Amino acid sequence: MKFISLPKSSMLLISLVLISVITVFSSLNAYDWQTFDIIPITPGMIYACAGSGLAIDSEGNPHVFYYTPRLNSNLHYSYWVDDSWQHMQIAYSSSGINSGPSVVIDDSDNIHIFYINQSQHPTYAFYDGVMWQHEVVDSISIGSSWLEIAIDEDNVPHLAYTGTSSSQLRYAYKSNDQWLIQIFDGGGGQEISLVLNAFGHPHILSASSSGGNYRYFDGAEWQSEIVPGVGSLTLDQLDRPHISYYEVNDGCYSLHYANKNTGVWQSSLVDPGTQHNKIGWDNHINIDEEGTIHIVYFAHNAARIKHAWNSNNSWNTQVFDIIGMWYSSIDFIIEGNHLYASYYDGAQGMLRIATTYQGQITSPGNLEAEVDNVNDIDLSWNHSVASNLFTNFSGYRIYNDEDSLVEFVFPGNNQHTLTGFPEGEHSFYITAVYGQNETPPSNTVEVVIELLPPTDFTAETTYQHVMCTWQEPEGTYNVTQYAVYRNGNIINQTSGTNFNDLNVPPGDYVYWVTAIYNTVHESSPSNVEDVIITGTVSTPIFSPESGVYQEPIDVAISCSTDDVQIYYTLDGNDPDESASVYIEPIAIEDGNIVIKARAYKTDWIPSEIAEAQYEIESSHIDDDLISSSTILYGNYPNPFNPETNIRFFLDNEKHVIIDIYNVKGEHIKRLVDHVISGGVHNLVWNGRDKQSKKLSSGIYLYKMTTENYTSIRRMILLK
C-alpha cells in the first residue's frame, strides 16, 4: 500500500472514465470496475514490465511508474493530462529488477518516488513541478528489492527496503538534509509494506522466518511483533493495523486477512486457492472512508485480477480483469469513493489501470417523531438501501431546526432516540449518507418539549435551619439533578428530593426548586415558599471575668441581644429553661465556683453556653493570722499584670527554694534559692521567664520548698 495524503478527488478521468457520479448496481456480489489501457510494452514477455507504482493527484489524474527490465531496465513514468496519456523516461535503472518503484504525491501535487538506480543503489527522486531531483539514499548495492515510500504531513519522505541480504530490513527518513537509516536484522525479504500513522510514525510489515514481522515506532522506540503473514499493510482511522497475505499449504495458495481490532491478531480466509492457482501472490489492502476493507490481488495461474471486500463480516470476491500472462505487479489505492488499481497485462503487453466508484443516493421517507420520557424524542423512518451498495452505505444524518447536525446513525437502524432536548419547539429531518454523497432530506417532523418541574415543594424552619422537600416530576426518567434556589440564587444541586439549608442568617427569604434534565436542561420553578429566619441569641458575658480573687465578689451576667431571659447553673450542669433565672448579680464569697449561663428569646436560636470559674482566697496577712509554722500565702494581686507579690512565713531560718512553672509542669524561673531568716517575707515576680522574656496570659504555679515543707499555689497572668 502507498501512503498518500491527498484532497478528495473528482472522477478519475474526464473522458476516459465514463462512470456517473451516482452508480446503481444490480448485484450484491460485484463492483462496476472499468479498465483502461495506459501504454503497450511487449506482448508475451515475462517481466517485460516490473511494478506499477500508482498515485492520484488533487485533480483526480493518475500517475504510474514502472520498470522495463527485459527491454532497457529504465524507470518510466506515465500520467494523464489534457485527456491523454503522456509518457517519459526519468531514470536508468538496474537490470533484473522485478519489483516496482514506489510513489506518493503530496498535498501540493509534488511527486516523490523511490527506486533502484543503475548502480543498484536505493534512490529517492522528487519532482517539484519543474524538474526531477535524484539522490542516493544508501550506499549499499541491493539489486532487486521491495521498496516502499511514505510522506508525512511535513512532506518528509520515509523509506523501507531490503538490505544487503534478503533477511535485512532498512528504514530511512530525511532529517536536516541527511538520510538517517535504521537497520533491522531478521525482517527483510522481498515483500515490504510501509505506512505512517496519524502522528507520522512509521509502521512496517516485512518477512520473518516464522511469517510476518510487524514493526512500528510508538513515539519513543521501535516495537516488533510476529504477525500471521507478510503481504500488505494499512491502518484504519484509529491507527489499528490491517494486513493481507497469502499462505501456502501443500502447494495450495490462499489469500488471508488479519487485524488487531481487539488487541490480538485475528485472521480470516478471504479467497481459498487451489493447487494450480496461486491466489494472492501479489496483494494490496486498503480501507475506504466507511471502514470497508478492500484487497486487490492476483490469481496467479488463472491470470486474473481480483477484488475482495468485507461486507457484514463476510468476504466477497470478484474478477474484474483477465490477463493472459501469469505475472503481474499490482498497486491499489483508494481516493474518496474511487478505487484504483494499476497492473501489467503480459499477454497483451499492456500497462493498465482499473477504477470503480462506490455510492448510490436514495432518500429516507415517512419520518415520524414521538416524545418520550419528557425530553427524549423517538424517531422512525423507512429507507430502502440499494442491495449492492449496502457495504458502502455509511448511515443517516439527523438534522434539527436550522439545518444543524444532531447525530449520526450507523447502518442497520431505521429508528433512533434523541435524548435530552431542551424545552421548546423542535423540527427534524434526516438524510442518508453514501460515501461522500448525501441524499436530499426526508419529510420534516415537529415536536414540542415541556420540561416538568418538581411538585409539592415545602420549606420548613427550625431555628436558623430550613428543611426543603419535594416530589420528582411525574413520569420522567431523565432528571439527573435538582437545583435548590434561595432568593433567586442556586444554593445546592442534588440528586435526591430533599435538602437542609443550615445556619441561614436572619432575614426574609423565598425558596423554590427546579429539575435538571440530562445534566444541562432546566425546568421551570416549582411552587414558591416564603421563609423568615429570626436569628441566634448572643452568648452571655460575665463581669468580672473568670479568675482567682482575694475578696468576695458579685458576678453580673449580661447579653447584647435585647429582650432575652438568662438561665444559669452553679452545679456544673448545662443550663436550659428549667435552670435558675438570672435576676441580680451572683455573690461569690469563698471556694471555687463554676457558673454556666445561656440566654433565650422567643423564636430565636438559644445562645451558646457561657462558662466562668471563680476562686476566692485571701491574699493579705494580718499580724494575728501569722502562723507559728512555715507557710506559703496566696499571691496578690491575682489575676495580675504585669507583676504580683508572693508572701511566705518561716518559723526559723531555713534554706528556701521558690520556682515558677506553667500548667504543663515546665520550669519557668527560680525566684529564690538560698537561706532566709525566720519571719514574713515578700517576693515580687514580674511575669518574665529566666531569660527575662515576657510571658503570655495564662495560669502559672509557684512552688516553695524547704527541708521539711512543700507547697504549690496558682496564679493568673492576665494581660
> What form results from the Cα inertia axes?
elongated
Count of alpha/pi helices: 0
Major sheet attributes: 5 strands, antiparallel
Instruction: Work out the radius of gyration.
Output: 48 Å
CATH topology assignment of the largest domain: Neuraminidase
Helix content: under 10%
Number of domains: 5
Annotation, overall tally of beta strands: 59
Q: What value does the average pLDDT take?
A: 83
- What structural class do you assign from the helix and strand content? mainly beta
CATH architecture of the largest domain: 6 Propeller
Distance between the termini: 90 Å
Parts with pLDDT < 50 across at least 5 consecutive residues: 1-29, 386-391
At the first level of CATH, what is the class of the largest domain? Mainly Beta
Strand content: over 45%
Write the layout of secondary structure elements.
Elements: E1 34-40, E2 50-56, E3 62-67, E4 74-81, E5 84-92, E6 102-105, E7 111-116, E8 122-127, E9 132-136, E10 147-151, E11 157-162, E12 168-175, E13 178-185, E14 193-196, E15 202-208, E16 211-217, E17 222-227, E18 231-235, E19 241-249, E20 252-259, E21 266-271, E22 279-287, E23 293-299, E24 304-311, E25 314-322, E26 331-335, E27 338-345, E28 350-357, E29 365-372, E30 376-382, E31 393-400, E32 404-409, E33 415-418, E34 424-434, E35 437-438, E36 445-449, E37 455-462, E38 465-471, E39 479-486, E40 489-494, E41 498-501, E42 507-517, E43 521-522, E44 529-533, E45 541-543, E46 547-549, E47 553-558, E48 565-569, E49 580-581, E50 586-588, E51 591-600, E52 610-616, E53 631-632, E54 644-650, E55 654-662, E56 667-676, E57 679-685, E58 698-706, E59 709-717
